[in-house]
Amino acid sequence: MSPLASLGGKLIQAMTSNPPTSSRTADASGSLPNPIDPALPLQIVRVEWDSHGRAAEVRVRQGDKPSLTVPAEGLHLSYRIAASGQVRCVGRPGFRADEPGYVDCDNPPQRPGRICARCSIIEAGFASSLHHAHNRSANSIDRDVASHLNRPNALYLAGFRDGSIKVGTSTLPRRDRRWAEQGAWRARQVAEAADGIIVREIEDAVTATLGLTQSVSAVRKVAGHLKPIAEEALEATLDHWTEAVHRLLSAVPDLAADVTAATGITPTDESWSFPGGDESVWHTLYAYSPPLSQASHNLIIERLCGRIALFTKPGSQDVFVADIGQLYGRVLELGDVEPNDVLVQDSLF
Ligand SMILES: [Zn+2]
Questions:
Q1: Ligand 1 centroid to 92 CA: how many Å?
Q2: For residues 316 and 102, is the Cβ–Cβ distance under 8 A?
Q3: How many angstroms separate the alpha carbon of residue 147 from the centre of ligand 1?
Q4: What are the tens digits of pLDDT across the range 176-204?
Q5: Å from CA of 150 to ligand 1 middle
Q6: N or C end of the chain: which has fewer CB within 10 A?
């Protein structure tokens, strides 16, 4: 048995929520069927959250098999980055009615990047169609785009642990999942709109008028976990911007008239906080210096907030923070490795 294969069940104890049709049976030691073959390189595709924003899974792919998801918590990744530095396109969510929920892709990605030119064009085209649909006549809007747009949408503010605030939109059923995907620590739904067109107009108006960004970088999200502002301060910041958005909705005559008359937008003030954010594991965290996308690492994912991971190392209680997005598209060679020495940086001083 190869050193890699001998790691078998102990390497990754993960049950799949999306089992392959050829799931292996339990081995003689009684370990659970494992969807991940430790003898094959593993590609990290992305992090996915459940509809409540509570449980995270990591989408992975091996060889040309379909991608599948495994629970993130407890996922033990002992790996080295292949010397060849292989990166493969991560694929994309299926947007159209005739596509699967996730579309795998075998193309090499654009460099730098983790997605190929074709997937990038499809994703960007869809996003652009959503965002600019209000400039087009109803008849010229693609049917799948229209189906996404003709749903009630939430306008929200998301707060991150460093105090950053962003404005965003989501269809109502995906709202909590969207917040979890983004790694928000607190959020407010500040309005409900009848469709996805008007909500994006308001989102752009909020950015143009109030200066609120529509994205927050992973670097800021990591920094927030290492040096968080007080919870009360983050809530107060959200209070401030919620009032500002409500004033904007009521004070812009054209916007208010259009919105209330044509689409029935309703100001709301619904609070959300990251499920599990009150656990003590989030209190004392350390920066993890070596890039996850280089050399070798041995880590156990403890929690995720968006794609920002808290992880431990076997035999240690210290909890580190890093952006697991560094690994998206990377092909990992699984096995016993000599991990990099970790430069622990005390986050508290
Ligand atoms: Zn692709």
A1: 7
A2: no
A3: 24
A4: 999 999 999 999 999 999 888 889 889 99
A5: 28
A6: C
